[in-house]
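We emphasize that the prediction below concerns an isolated chain of 274 residues; any contacts that depend on oligomerization or on bound cofactors are therefore not represented. The input was used exactly as deposited, without trimming of termini.
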Amino acid sequence: MPRITVSRRVTRIRVGEPVQICPDHLAVEEPLELRVDGKPLTVTMRTPGHDEELAAGFLVSQGVINAPEHFHCAGPADAYNVLDVSLASGARPPAQFLERDFSTRSSHGIHGIASMDTLTTVAKYPVPDESLRITAELLASFPDELRVGQAAFDRTGGLHAAALFDAATGQLLVLREDVGRHNAVDKVIGWALMEHRLPGRGLVLMVSGRTSFDLVHKALVSGIPVLAAISAPSSLAAELAETEGLTLIGFLRGQSMVAYSRADRIRTEDGRAQ
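Result of the prediction step, given as a token string:
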């Protein structure tokens, strides 16, 4: 079982109280080199565990694969944090900019002008006509469900989380934690791919932090019609969501939320938001 937390002795200091030397827990961050058919593709800093899902979700977000049969992984990452996957016929070869020079970081998404040009061209599943409708009451319950499932966060306070919920029943389908919020999202998308749940019709993607342009992009290429977050979206995230017909929700806390696009999918006591 991969380590997701480590123990470290720290010095706790509180004004007016004696200094304490005590153990603390930190979230593990290690590099993962992703190879495709033996050829290095990218390196990301991630929390070990669910690496196959991370690789699958990353390849989905890049438009390389959109079906589980396009992707094969012989096993978990090796002792050197290298994961080699194979692409089957039907997969789209990695874009030239990926093969030439692509790197990610745990706290960031896509880098480089070439990749930005690619982001709006790889979507597989349009969402504007998605018939999903969800009550505001059900949406309001998701943050607590997400928080309850964050076991590693309870120990470290240093992990992001992403989850997929069924919009009809409110069932939590999958939750993943990672030092990188983009990695956490890739892991749940990878899970959905391998569980034959893409396109993500009738699903809500919930994230524990803020929403950036590339998180909206990841939802769109996966066919997920609703993206909800505890914190705020960026301006570009809101613009992309509005343009592509995705319902984007921010500041989902307690009994309140802010809909930045396609609020008509949210049902309230008065009917439907406009």
